[in-house]
């Protein structure tokens, strides 16, 4: 079993979607975590709405800060727009996904980001 940590700026959009979609794709074979370098107070409402369309409810999820301890738990760290704020831990596999921040975007753009994340997490779950 591998643990994947998804990291973005606020842990309120891309990383939350990635964690939920990875959990679904991995179906218990692997574990997913998510965090943000500067966590928001809540998951972005447009992200909650887009994920509800897939029967995934993120409304009660709380963004959490990225810590070195959290990163050390992961076998794979997927970064999305956090740049140099993400800690580098030797021996971890790092992937950087260039995806737009869904905050404040129209729902159709959030859906496009969600669908691209879903494609990538399915591929990652298969690789692991």
In short:
The protein has 128 residues and is α/β, with parallel strands linked by helices. It has helices at residues 14-26, 45-52, 68-73, 107-127; strands spanning 3-8, 31-36, 76-80, 93-96.
Describe the protein's topology.
Blueprint: E1 3-8, H1 14-26, E2 31-36, H2 45-52, H3 68-73, E3 76-80, E4 93-96, H4 107-127
Parallel strand pairs: 1-2, 1-3, 3-4
General description of the model:
By secondary structure, the chain is an alpha/beta fold. It contains four helices and four strands; from the N terminus they run βαβααββα. The chain has helices at residues 14-26, 45-52, 68-73, 107-127, and strands at residues 3-8, 31-36, 76-80, 93-96. A four-stranded parallel beta sheet has the order 2-1-3-4. Strand 1, helix 1 (14-26) and strand 2 form a beta-alpha-beta unit. Helix 1 (14-26) packs across helix 4 (107-127). The chain is globular, with a radius of gyration of 13 Å. The chain starts with a strand and ends with a helix.
Query: What would the average pLDDT be, to the nearest integer?
Result: 94
Give me the side-by-side strand order of the main sheet.
Answer: 2-1-3-4
Per DSSP, the total helix count is: 4
Largest sheet: 4 strands, parallel
SSE order in H/E notation? EHEHHEEH
Residue share in β-strands = 15-25%
Helix content: 25-40%
Low-confidence stretches: none
Our measurement of the CA-to-CA distance between the termini, rounded to an integer number of angstroms, reads: 8 Å
Report the count of strand segments: 4
Supply Rg.
Answer: 13 Å
Global structural class: alpha/beta
Q: So what's the overall shape?
A: globular
